[in-house]
Amino acid sequence: MKLLFLVLIMLISSPEEKIKIKDPWLRISAEGQSTALFMKIENTTDAADTLYKVECDFAGRVEIHETYQQGEMMGMREVPFIVISPKSTFELKPRSHHIMVIKLKKDIKKGSQEDFTLYFKQAGKLKVKTTAQEMQMPKLEHKH
Ligand SMILES: [Cu+2]
Q1: From ligand 1's centre to the CA of 115, what distance in Å?
Q2: In Å, how far from its chain's centre is CA 108?
Q3: In a domain, 2, yes or no
Q4: In terms of pLDDT, which residue wins out, 77 or 1?
Q5: Predicted confidence (pLDDT) per residue in 1-21, tens digit
């Protein structure tokens, strides 16, 4: 009886994940270069949440980027945050928003698993494990 009660309490109090990260992947790259992190961010709550910082221990700097079009040119630039609307999924993908991982301290080889920490205003700190994959894409120009 005591055990049943305990299980019930655990079921009731186990918090639903506010933010779910789906299909995170990192583009393969080499030491000294930059790369990008992509994923789908699902907000399961009734309130908007904001991704405002991303960290990892194998790069000089990590930034949140958006892609923009200027005439025929495509470029990308840093943005301070990404807002994920209530009950919706925000997709970071090539030619769109992405996490820029700058000045890698090591090679990122196909299949390697890397850890990132995402910071959300509502959901707080979230650890994400990504797998490195190849991407066939023309390189975008940076504007800093
Ligand atoms: Cu970028």
Answers
A1: 19
A2: 16
A3: no
A4: 77
A5: 666 666 555 555 445 689 999
